[in-house]
Amino acid sequence: MGRELYRAIVDGILYGGVYALMAVGLTLIFGVLDIINIAQGILVVLAAYLSYVLSVHLHLELFLGLLITIPVMFLVGVAIQVLFMRRLRGRERTSMSLLASYAVMIIIEGILYLAFGPDYVQLNASYVTSSVHVLGFYLPYIYLYGFGLAVALVAALYLMLYRTTFGRSLRATMQDQTAARLVGIDINRVAALAFGIGVAVTAVGGMVFGATNAFNPNSGYDLISRLLAIIILGGMGSIGGALAAALFMSVTEAIVDIWSPTWSVVVFYAALVVVLTFRPQGLFGHREARAQ
Amino acid sequence: MSQDIGQPAGARRWRAGGARLSRETRGGIAAVLLLLIAIIFPLVITDQVATQIGVDTMLFVAATVAWNLFSGFTGYISLGAAVFFGTGAYTVGIAAQDWHITGNMEFALLPLAALAAGVVAVPFGLIALRVRRHTFVVITIAIFFIFQLMAFNLHITGGSVGISAPFLTWAPETFNIPFYYMALALAAGVAVLSWLIRGSRFGLQLRAIRDDEDRARGLGVRALRVKLVAFVISGVVIGLVGALWFFFIGQVLPQYGFDPLFDLSVALMAFFGGFGTLWGPILGALILEPGQQYLTLQVSNSYASELIWGSLFLLVILFLPRGVVPMAGEKAMAWRARRERRRAGQPAAARPASAGTADAALPGRPTGASTPGGRSTR
Q1: Pick from B127, B135, B310: which is nearest to A277 by CB?
Q2: Which of A95, A103, A266 sits opposite B77 (nearest CB)?
Q3: Which of A103, A273, B79, B247 could form a disulfide with B313 if both were Cys (CB 3.0 to 4.6 A apart)?
Q4: Which residue of B has its CA nearest to A182?
Q5: pLDDT per residue over A170-212, tens digit each?
Q6: Is residue B32 part of a domain?
């Protein structure tokens, strides 16, 4: 029993790292733009398919492929922001952006179905199937690499946010758009870049997700509902909260999975409902200011 | 927001100019005409495909109006309507199975579906209605997924095999007709209910919450209770829709009973027609549901129709964010106002006043402070 529990905790942490990365992208977009990007889940799947095409048809190494998929996903994100999200105005903007990104999700899903069909595929490489023996656990290399990459990228995002001028203007925009505009920040540019960065991280998330799970165009629903649960639990717009919530959710799920695989996912959402009953603003969130 | 509270100046001028019938009378006449057409429809067009689309459409009218009754009036966008739909369907399914109910007796179970949906709506509402805006939307999605997962995993729901409805020994040629009239009755009933609520003190409280919840509380509206009552009413109706749909289709599977696309379709239809209005959800469902069914019939590739559907949805949100009905109304008023001015011999110089119903602030109405690009939201 004890061994299984440790094993579940280790698995949970390793996998939680990847979820954390995807969720940080989502919470960044929310924090800067006040937009919930429902399409984040299907964008992860899109990135996974991109990696799939690169590795199957061009025989490109998965990690090398990231050099292509990250910029591509960044551009996809910028395009979504500039073409659709920027046009939304008015008081119902947040709600409308939810629906708009939901529509984007359906469109991408349709395109993926047309291009790849409903069959499940999985990314393949030597390190996906082989494992390393650490402290009595067999850990698949892909989990280790994925976790390492996720940690490195989250650290990079953190440094960018807190150590660069762009990061400062980004945080300023998160705090108060009008004030940020008054001190000379180009809000449109910051918004487009933030959306691009938030989506670019799905390239890595998608690659690791695609290597550890079989996926098809329908996989986006499950992903987005988990990601939403994570950022809500952590507190909308809080990057530290997203990290903590991703690890918490992932470890909880892995532990419950020992007893009942079918109920582990329900526990995930039930935890969310319980937390929100006592802390409506999430674990690390602040209470909403009075609506204007 | 509503058209009756803040009439654009052009409309007032027009009505004073030469309208013979009041707005309510015209609305009533339109409603009676629409109802007559709906009653006659299956008698004239007896094609089974057409009547089947008719049943689906009426079910969606009822669901969309019910959704709008809560979400449209209060501004709390729920993407968890399928929770009630599935609850209604599964409740009557499980009851019919356990109590060995067969044939036409199944319809006696409908009140049970309403009751179950109402019972589910109370805790759902108590948890979700404590938060606002996007957090509310996301919690409705999370609760929706809990229900879908339970339907997949619980023993009594039959897992991924689902549940079958009692067999109806009706002739296939006329099978759709009773369902059509039941769905129509439900749709008409909830439309009338929606109209009654909108004109009542309760409806005013709901709209006060939509405009400014904190101020409404300050003025003595018991916000949580009012929201919860609307949420439960909306859930009960959608539960009935789910039960009727289940009897009609004859089977419920977890992915169709708790279908994320249902959540979305209902919201889309309401937004397309006009979020928070009386006519918007009715017309939205009447236009979009047959449209979608037709699309599915024409485009044999269901993925392509999904693509078209998503694109249409996006276009509606980008270009008709307040829906067809309010936008068409404004266009018509602007046109009438222009015509009237021309008739009065005025130069068309006052153009901003006629076009300025949406994006420019009307004189004398304070705009909401300084939100970037903000417009006067009524």
Answers
A1: B127
A2: A95
A3: A103
A4: B372
A5: 888 877 778 888 888 888 888 888 899 999 988 998 998 888 8
A6: yes
Q: Are B149 and A269 in contact (CB < 8 Å)?
A: yes
Give the tokens for residue A20: 């954390």
DSSP string, B43-75: HH---HHHHHHHHHHHHHHHHHHHHIIIIIHH-
- The domains of chain A are located at 2-278
Quote the ipTM score. Answer: 0.76
Q: What is the pLDDT of residues A63-101, one digit of tens each?
A: 888 899 999 999 999 999 988 888 887 666 777 787 788
Q: Touching check for A257 and chain B: CB below 8 Å?
A: no
Q: Specify the pLDDT at position A150.
A: 84
B375 min Cα distance to partner chain A (Å) = 6
Could you give phi then psi for residue A121, rounded to 5 degrees? -130, 165
Write out the two tokens for A168: 């400062």
* A287 contact B CB<8A: no
Summarize pLDDT for A108-154 with one digit per residue, the tens.
998 999 999 888 888 887 776 777 777 777 777 888 888 888 888 88
Q: Which residues of B touch A228 (CB under 8 A)?
A: 138, 141-142
Whether B244 maps to a domain, the answer reads yes
The class level of CATH for A2-278 reads mainly alpha
User: Is pLDDT of B230 > 70?
Assistant: yes
Chain A interface includes B373 (CB < 8 A): yes
Mean pLDDT of B222-234: 92
B110 within domain boundaries: yes
Give A113's contacts in chain B (Cβ within 8 Å). Answer: 303, 306
Contacts of B218 (CB under 8 A, 6+ apart): none
Query: Which DSSP string do the residues of B66-101 spell out, in sequence order?
Result: HHIIIIIHH----S-HHHHHHHHHHHHHHHHHHTT-
**Is the residue at B61 inside a domain?**
yes
Give A-chain residues touching B143 at CB under 8 angstroms. Answer: 269, 273
Residues 6-35 of chain A whose Cβ lies under 8 A from any Cβ of chain B:
30
Q: Which domain holds residue B52?
A: 23-260
Q: What is the pLDDT of residue A1?
A: 59
